[in-house]
Structures are given as structure tokens and as C-alpha cells.
């Protein structure tokens, strides 16, 4: 089969990204990327961190599950989490919006209200965008950020023996997805976590200052996203379940739905927690919890020393 044969579903999301990125020259002025949570590009008077994520109605959100304000907040939050995962602080966002002609105008103004609310939580605003007609609602946000005098924390700097730590929630959005998917609207804690994440933006730059060797935000699932650090860094990573305290709320929701809350914590996406590796004996900054260790490359991503037998997280076109 030539590289262009088959469909995107047959290729898979990450092989498809490789197919469009590998073997090309690094663009002029690009200092880092593609391949990480965000690119770093040169500006005449410094560096800019830049990232884009797209949200599609029916794939990333449903307007019978979430208000337009929730969706607007989520669209900005998922991008600001990528800025934080580089150790950067956000400077602004730009918004591409595609919608069908019969979209109520309140949907669009509600999206904008949500985007502004989330941007303002991070001390920034929306400085531009674009609007076009489409068959379904599609939201593309580009976020820019600043590193100050810090170096970016990439996916590739983890070393065997580094401590693995997390800051933010794991499994909440996945529990909320399970609840909404079965037609329920409560408990509101997990449902709201699915409607809109609350990434710990400030934890990214703090981790960078504390010497984090690699970092990523958990968009697809903890194990899947650790796979990107493992691959980029050439290390294995072992997650210790004894260190993952499962919140009582997730245990309750799991019991009610007949689902395993540990599965949500290990493979659930969309909470946009930050996970990072730190050199051994680092004093972790506030809010960071140790959950595992980086190991030798050939051990891969393991849970309590054993390979995980299921999918580690979400991939598109599965
Ligand atoms: N169409 C594309 N062209 C060039 N680079 C791309 C393309 N799509 C993705 N990438 C790059 O591939 C890398 C991985 O992208 P991916 O979207 O998985 O990361 P992410 O945004 O951190 O995760 P998520 O989208 O799950 O939140 C990023 O550096 C991204 O810029
Ligand atoms: C209606 C609806 N169905 C399913 C999901 C679950 N979901 C969609 S995208 C994604 C991973 C992150 O996306 P990306 O990789 O594009 O950042 C997950 C877990 C949802 N949020 N809404
Ligand atoms: Mg990311
Ligand atoms: Mg992305
Ligand atoms: Mg993804």
C-alpha cells in the first residue's frame, strides 16, 4: 500500500499527522514544532508559542448537553491548556467559526460570551477571528503564548528515573460523558467537567520553573498522552494506581453506571490536567501529585508494572 492509499480511519489520527508533517523542512522562523502541544516561533523581538485545536458539533460537544457558553469556554480552555503544557502563559486567542445559516444568533453570541469568560479567567481576550458558512458548527481556536525567559517544556525531555506527576483532574470529563451519554444530567460535578474543563493554567509555567523535563496536557487520556511523552523522550512510563486516588464522586458514578472509575482516570480525556516529569528528588510545586516514574524505553507505558491491554485514550476516526 502506498502512503496515500486507504482512508483516514484506516490510517489513524497519529499516523496521519506523521504523514503530513514528517520529511518536511522546518518552516523558516519555527524554533520548535510541529510535534508538541504548541509550536514556538521566532518573532523579531522574541518568541511566540502558538497552538490550534478544532471542536466539531457532535464530535466534541452537543448543544443538547451543553450551553453555547460552555462550548465557547471549552474551545478556549483546550487551547490554553496546550499553551500551559509548554510552560508558557497565554497572550491571546483567535477564533474561526463555521456555522449553518439557520444557527440561532444566540448560539454565536453565547459562544463568544463563553470564549471571553474563559479567556478573561486567564487574563486575556479574543483578538480576532473569522466566520464562514458550513453544514455543521465548527470552532477553531488558535492560542498564542509567551515563555518569558523560560525554555519550552517539550514532550521529549523525560529521562529514566524522572518522577511522573499530575496537576488537575483525571477521569471527571469521561465520567460526565458516560452520564450524559445515558441521558442523565447529574451529578452536576462530572457533567460540568465534560461540558467545560478547568485546566490548571498556572501550573504549567510553575512546573517549568521547578525544572520539569517533559510535559503534556491530558486531552485524549492519561495513558495515551503519556505515550506521546514516552515516544518523544525515548522512555517508558509506569503509572502507579496506588498513587491515583480515585475521587469518591467518580466511585459513586461508576457504581451507578456499572463502570470502572479507574478506567476513566487512566484513559478518559478532556479534563486537560497537566502531566509532567521532574528529575528525581525535585520538590514539586503546589498542586502536583506524584503518580509514577519514567523507566527504560523498552518497557513502554505500564500500569503497576504491567502493559495496559486496552486503548489508552481517544483517537479520532476510530
Ligand atoms: N494538520 C496538521 N498539520 C501539521 N501539524 C499538525 C496537524 N495536525 C496536528 N499537527 C501537530 O501534531 C502534533 C500533535 O497534535 P495533537 O492535536 O495530537 O496535539 P494536542 O493538540 O496537544 O492534542 P489534542 O488535539 O488531543 O488536544 C501537534 O504538534 C500539532 O501541531
Ligand atoms: C458529543 C461528544 N461525543 C464524544 C465526546 C468525547 N470526546 C470527543 S473528542 C475527545 C478527545 C479530545 O479531542 P481532541 O483530540 O480533538 O482534542 C473526546 C474524549 C465528546 N466530548 N462529545
Ligand atoms: Mg495537548
Ligand atoms: Mg490538537
Ligand atoms: Mg486528541
Element layout with pairings:
Elements: H1 8-11, H2 13-21, E1 30-32, E2 39-43, E3 46-56, H3 68-85, E4 89-99, H4 105-121, E5 126-133, E6 138-146, E7 163-167, H5 172-181, H6 188-195, H7 203-209, E8 214-217, H8 222-233, E9 235-239, H9 248-257, H10 261-267, E10 274-278, E11 289-296, E12 301-303, E13 306-307
Helix pairs in contact: 3-4, 5-6, 5-9, 5-10
The structure holds adenosine-5'-triphosphate (ATP), thiamin phosphate (TPS) and magnesium ion (MG) (3 copies).
Adenosine-5'-triphosphate binds at residues 17, 20-21, 33-37, 53, 78, 82, 219-220.
Total strands: 13
Average of pLDDT: 97
Output the CATH homologous superfamily of the largest domain: PurM-like C-terminal domain
Rg result: 19 Å
GO molecular function: ATP binding; magnesium ion binding; thiamine-phosphate kinase activity
Keywords: ATP-binding, Kinase, Magnesium, Metal-binding, Nucleotide-binding, Thiamine biosynthesis, Transferase
Domain PurM-like N-terminal: 35-145
Protein name: Thiamine-monophosphate kinase
Q: How does this structure look, described?
A:
It is globular and about 55 Å long. The chain contains ten helices and 13 strands. The chain is of the alpha+beta class. 32% of the residues lie in helices and 25% in strands. It has a seven-stranded mixed β-sheet. The chain has helices at 8-11, 13-21, 68-85, 105-121, 172-181, 188-195, 203-209, 222-233, 248-257, 261-267; strands at residues 30-32, 39-43, 46-56, 89-99, 126-133, 138-146, 163-167, 214-217, 235-239, 274-278, 289-296, 301-303, 306-307. Helix 3 runs parallel beside helix 4 (105-121) and helix 5 crosses helix 6. It folds into two domains: 40-146, PurM-like, N-terminal domain (60s Ribosomal Protein L30, Chain: A), CATH 3.30.1330; 163-307, Phosphoribosyl-aminoimidazole Synthetase, Chain A, domain 2 (Alpha-Beta Complex), CATH 3.90.650. The longest helix is centred in the N-terminal third of the chain and has 18 residues, at 68-85.
Amino acid at each position: 500500500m502506498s502512503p496515500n492509499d486507504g482512508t483516514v480511519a484506516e490510517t489513524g489520527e497519529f499516523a496521519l499527522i506523521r504523514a503530513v508533517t514528517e520529511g518536511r523542512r522546518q518552516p523558516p522562523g519555527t524554533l520548535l514544532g510541529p510535534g508538541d502541544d504548541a509550536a514556538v516561533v521566532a518573532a523579531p523581538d522574541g518568541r511566540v508559542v502558538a497552538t490550534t485545536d478544532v471542536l466539531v458539533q457532535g464530535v466534541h460537544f452537543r448543544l443538547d448537553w451543553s450551553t453555547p457558553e460552555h462550548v465557547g469556554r471549552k474551545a478556549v480552555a483546550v487551547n490554553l491548556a496546550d499553551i500551559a503544557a509548554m510552560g508558557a502563559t497565554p497572550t491571546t486567542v483567535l477564533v474561526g467559526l463555521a456555522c449553518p445559516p439557520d444557527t440561532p444568533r444566540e448560539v454565536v453570541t453565547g459562544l463568544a460570551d463563553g470564549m471571553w469568560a474563559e479567556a478573561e479567567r486567564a487574563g486575556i481576550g479574543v483578538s480576532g477571528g473569522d466566520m464562514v458558512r458550513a453544514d455543521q458548527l465548527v470552532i477553531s481556536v488558535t492560542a498564542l503564548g509567551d515563555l518569558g525567559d523560560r525554555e519550552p517544556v517539550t514532550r521529549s525531555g523525560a529521562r529514566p528515573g524522572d518522577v511522573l506527576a499530575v496537576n488537575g483532574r483525571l477521569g471527571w470529563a469521561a465520567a460526565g460523558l458516560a452520564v450524559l451519554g445515558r441521558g442523565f444530567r447529574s451529578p452536576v460535578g462530572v457533567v460540568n467537567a465534560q461540558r467545560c474543563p478547568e485546566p490548571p493554567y498556572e501550573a504549567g509555567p510553575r512546573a517549568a520553573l521547578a525544572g520539569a523535563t517533559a510535559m503534556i496536557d491530558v486531552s485524549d487520556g492519561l495513558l495515551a498522552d503519556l505515550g506521546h511523552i514516552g515516544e518523544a523522550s525515548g522512555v517508558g512510563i509506569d503509572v502507579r494506581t496506588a498513587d491515583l486516588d480515585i475521587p469518591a464522586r467518580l466511585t459513586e458514578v461508576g457504581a451507578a453506571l456499572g463502570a470502572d472509575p479507574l478506567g476513566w482516570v487512566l484513559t478518559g480525556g478532556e479534563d486537560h490536567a497537566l502531566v509532567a516529569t521532574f528529575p528525581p528528588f525535585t520538590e514539586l510545586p503546589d498542586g502536583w501529585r506524584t503518580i509514577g516514574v519514567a523507566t527504560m524505553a523498552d518497557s513502554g507505558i505500564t500500569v503497576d508494572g504491567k502493559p495496559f491491554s486496552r486503548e489508552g485514550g481517544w483517537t479520532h476516526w476510530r
